[in-house]
Each structure stands twice: as structure tokens, then as C-alpha cells.
Amino acid sequence: MTAKKEEAELVYSTEQGRMCPGCGQSVAKCICHQKQEIPKGDGIVRVGRITKGRKGKGVTTVAGVPLSQRDLQKLAKQLKQKCGSGGTLKDGIIEIQGDHRDIVIAQLKKQGYVVKRTGG
Questions:
Q1: CB neighbours of residue 7 within 10 Å
Q2: Rounded CA gap, 8 and 51, in Å?
Q3: Is the pLDDT of residue 62 over 80?
Q4: What would the mean pLDDT of 81-98 be, rounded to a whole number?
Q5: Is residue 1 in some structural domain?
């Protein structure tokens, strides 16, 4: 039995820097992320607070943002920094630890989104 040797993927080049494992191009010229779809919705960003499954601790949720996954990660990072709190991005929903609805709504309105407060 002979095992086929898979070609090692190039992850860094001294000429081009970091390389994309998907298309083999430099990260700056990557064509993989250009294909990302923007989810369709009604154009309204919904900001709420959820405590379910968190032992009473609340998280602020941001749903319905019409951005690609990569842009959602950038937005999540901005909002977490603005709130001074941790959080995550799960299934297209940004979760920020604590009750920061007012700060998040103000920040999203500054960026030009139509925002609604959901929940209590």
C-alpha cells in the first residue's frame, strides 16, 4: 500500500505575505471572500436582550444586519469595543455580554441602519 502524499498548502510567502488556503492567492488578492452572499432580510436590524440558557446572565443580541460573514465579524468587534465587553458571532447573530442595548442601538443608527428594539 502506498499512501498518496497531499501537497502542502502554502500559508505564507515572503514576496506576497499571508496566502489564502482556499484559492492560493495572497490575502489581499483573495477571490474566495468575494463570493460571500449577503443574507436577505427586511432591512431592519433588531437589537434585544436574551437570558435563556445563561443562568440569568443577559446578552445583547443584534440580528438582521445585511452584511457578509466577514463584515459581520468586523461589526461585532467594533460593537464589543464600544461596549467594553466580550461577545461572539453565532449563526449571523452578534451576541455581546451584558445589557448594552442603548449603546448598540446608538452606534448602529450612526452607521445608517434602521434599528428596532426587541424584547422587554
A1: 6
A2: 45
A3: yes
A4: 92
A5: no
